[in-house]
Amino acid sequence: MSESPARHSHPLDLMLAVSDVVVNKRYAQIYAQVLTLDTPTVEELSEDLDSSTTTVYEDMKHLVESDILERVTETQPHRYQAREIDLNVQAGDETYEITPALFVALARSETNENLRLFIDRHGTGGLAGALEYARNYVQGQMNARIMAREQDIPVLEAETILQELRDVLLDVEPDREQSPDIEELEAEVDDRN
């Protein structure tokens, strides 16, 4: 395995690299594919992404230099893997966790109408916020009614995005799911009324 020096000597470096992936959906798609395929080559990625090898190579080079991906072989063809990203961003009283799940959700929004519509309505920041609710939803600590009330969105929209993000989270973080305690959730809904 190739060892690269720590490029992110400061958290701001990681934040800037992450913002590149958030803004450029092609980077998000590449990251999501590398995560899914587990050490693919550029050629394998270009086939899956329906992009030219040259384009994918240039994108991969940028993502490796940004320390979002790493090259894990020294011989040709090079293989790559996704680095684990775990960045907490505090905005006022709220803390948001930026993990690979955000990149995967952004990548899936290219083909998933529900994710795309949610991003169109609420932006990438709204998606990151919805992921916080989805993490609690997957662990049985949240439901669509609570999210809808707190975010001032329709219950159906909350339920739809929670289901879509649940699938993302279980693909990216499969150990996260727990069975919900229905009585506890209903009591929490009543307390928040």
What does this structure look like?
This protein has 193 residues and is mostly helical. The protein has two domains: 11-82, Orthogonal Bundle (Arc Repressor Mutant, subunit A), CATH 1.10.10.10; 87-192, no CATH class. The protein has helices spanning 11-23, 25-37, 42-49, 53-65, 100-108, 113-138, 144-151, 155-172, 182-192, and strands at 69-71, 80-82, 87-91, 94-98. The protein is elongated, with a radius of gyration of 18 Å. Pfam families: DUF7437, TrmB. It comes from Haloarcula salinisoli. Residues 110-173 form the DUF7437 domain. This is Helix-turn-helix domain-containing protein.
What are the SSEs and their pairings?
Blueprint: H1 11-23, H2 25-37, H3 42-49, H4 53-65, E1 69-71, E2 80-82, E3 87-91, E4 94-98, H5 100-108, H6 113-138, H7 144-151, H8 155-172, H9 182-192
Antiparallel strand pairs: 1-2, 3-4
Helix pairs in contact: 1-2, 2-4, 2-5, 3-4, 5-6, 5-8, 6-8, 7-8
Primary descriptors:
single chain, 193 residues, mainly alpha, Arc Repressor Mutant, subunit A, 2 domains, two-stranded antiparallel ribbon, 62% helix, disordered N terminus
Q: What's the Cα radius of gyration?
A: 18 Å
What is the total number of structural domains? Answer: 2
Instruction: Summarize the main sheet.
Output: 2 strands, antiparallel
Uncertain runs with pLDDT below 50, 5 residues or more? 1-6
What's the number of extended β-strand segments? 4
Approximate shape: elongated
Pfam families: DUF7437, TrmB
Protein name: Helix-turn-helix domain-containing protein
Organism: Haloarcula salinisoli
InterPro entries: DUF7437, Tscrpt_reg_TrmB_N, WH-like_DNA-bd_sf, WH_DNA-bd_sf
